[in-house]
Amino acid sequence: MLYREAGQFKSTYASDMVVFRLKEDRAGLAVIILMAYALAFMGSDFLLQAVLIPFLVFALAAIGLNLLTGYAGQLSLGTGAFMGVGAYACYKLMTAFPDINVIVWILVSGFFSAAVGTLFGLPSLRIKGFYLAVATLAAQFFLQWCFIRIPWLVNYNVSGALDAPLRTLFGVPVVGATATPQTRYIVVLTLVIVLTWVASNLVRGRIGRMWIAVRDMDLAAELMGIRLLQTKLLAFAVSSYYCGVAGALMVFLWYGGAEYDVFNINQSFFILFMVIIGGLGSLIGSFFGAALIFIMPILLGIVLPIMLAPFGIAIGAETIEHLRFMIVGALIIFFLIVEPHGLARLWQIGKQKLLVWPFPY
Amino acid sequence: MTSASDPHMAADDVLLSVEGVSLRFGGVKALSDVSFNIRKGEIRAIIGPNGAGKTSMLNCINGFYYPSEGRITFKGKTRRKMRPHEAARGGIARTFQNVALFKSMSTLDNIMAGRSLKMKANFFWQLFRYGPALREEVVHRRSVEEIIDFLQIPHIRRTPVGKLPYGLQKRVELGRALAMEPDLLLLDEPMAGMNLEEKEDMSRFILEVNQQFGTTIALIEHDIGVVMDLSDRVVVLEYGRKIADGTPQEVKSDPRVIDAYLGIPH
């Protein structure tokens, strides 16, 4: 490892409680963020549009679900639907009030999702675990039914789909057909960075401790004066807010329009897998999970033909597709066997080992 | 210490009184017509054979169970139904027979979680961890560090408590209860499964908590030696009934207690 903990002493509690206690870690984060912004200008349109924007959107949704399932311990299968609520709310808001900036509406649409999420979180007082998952499944089906059956949500347009009208920020198109991938990427990246920072503030403070307390030992939590229902509902609200914003970003800054079908149960499972593989109860794990589940197949699609070419094996696009599924599936199983607590834990262990290297502990 | 056993004490020195409490689960009577009180500043032990209803009694006091009959008066207020979080707000803290820590959190966070009630910064500030929210974190971190020093566990500050040995977990749990700065501390078998040395440590902490912070303590314990040394007064339960109540000396020589523990010759 290039750096150690030794010699970095903290003399105030405030400096001891920051996220990254080592200055090298802070510098590393700054470099990563700078590079992420630099990619907007250096990366190709394909990289931005088909890889990075979706990755960030999925990471945000995964953070949302992670707050609920990873931190507060409430299993939810309604993620896709809550994303949908955000997207439809954003569509209604930006078409009803076209003069107000679309970024504002994206952030506000999360509140609609939060309200709906809170409503469907009410059963969590009485039911836990798999049974709660089934209850949230009701949200998934009910909300999807709403998206199909209520034409008001799509302003009665004939196709029944959401479209992305042109919206600008400082005169630059952000949403709509003319918005460049660069602009959209920068907007998504900025929102994801800010919301991740906010999530990290929440989980490190009193609220995060209350969530974890409810997850780990709800009886003891209640005994500390933590009200279970309020704490769980807050988790549902915040989680759904994140999912709602992710849904709005997905439709308007990635797809540029979508049908109800985007928010189906598969989407919910997709996000849940990211959270589980990335690491329950870890924000960085949400990024790892999104990367593994979303970027890995794309990478394989590019790398496999190149790797096989020297051996004179020419394989068709379909075979590559099959191989991709098989390899990703195998990797998921591999990672879960190696570390059931997800990639975030592997990352943590790796860092710890490197810090004390060459000694074992 | 001696004042606790003074019979002429004023009635308003009673912190908690239990009057005629019965608890039924269907046909099973866990407690029947139990009455006793806990005075301010004393260490009150509840002993009895397994299944005597000791833990049920604690559960009634802090609101996990509602007594089927009888009244529980805490700080002069009688509440028939009290939720656990209301008990916490009222100043009752508790540790569990089987450690009930938040396993994935560090020692620090566990004890910090114990201070949740004392933290007031609203959601908005929490979002940005700024202003009141940050100041509050620092203030409470300081009090938590004091507790950590008091319990002599600074070395495990950042260790997830799930990885700690049992004796230390018990100590962290005591710390978490202390973080609530309770008026009444209920300890359910704080020394179960400990070796002699750990028991001595724990006894010392219990006495120090009682003397330094003036916390009233009610404890359940099976180790009679510990009970006799620590407590000011002892109440003995058997099959859900109170069979003796008094100073350790009185209780020790009570024939019914001896019968309950040693068995009656037939």
Task: Give an account of the 3D structure.
The complex is a heterodimer of chains A (361) and B (266). With 361 residues, chain A is mainly alpha-helical. Chain A has a single domain, classed as ABC transporter involved in vitamin B12 uptake, BtuC. Chain A contains 14 helices and four strands. Chain A has helices at residues 13-16, 23-42, 45-71, 79-96, 102-121, 129-149, 181-204, 206-216, 218-223, 228-255, 265-278, 283-308, 317-338, 343-356, and strands at 162-163, 167-169, 172-175, 257-258. Chain B contains ten helices and ten strands. In chain B, strands 6-7-8-3-9-10 form a six-stranded mixed sheet, sandwiched between helices. A four-stranded antiparallel sheet of chain B has the order 2-1-4-5, with helices on one face. In chain B, helix 3 runs parallel beside helix 6. Helices cover 37% and strands 24% of the residues of chain B. Chain B has 266 residues and is α/β, with parallel strands linked by helices. The N and C termini of chain B lie far apart (40 Å). Chain B is globular. Mean pLDDT of chain B is 89; it is low at 1-9. Chain B has a domain at 1-90 and 222-266: Rossmann fold, CATH 3.40.50.300. The chains are: A mainly alpha (361), B alpha/beta (266). At the A-B interface, helix 1, helix 7, helix 8 and helix 9 of A face helix 2, helix 3, helix 4 and helix 5 of B.
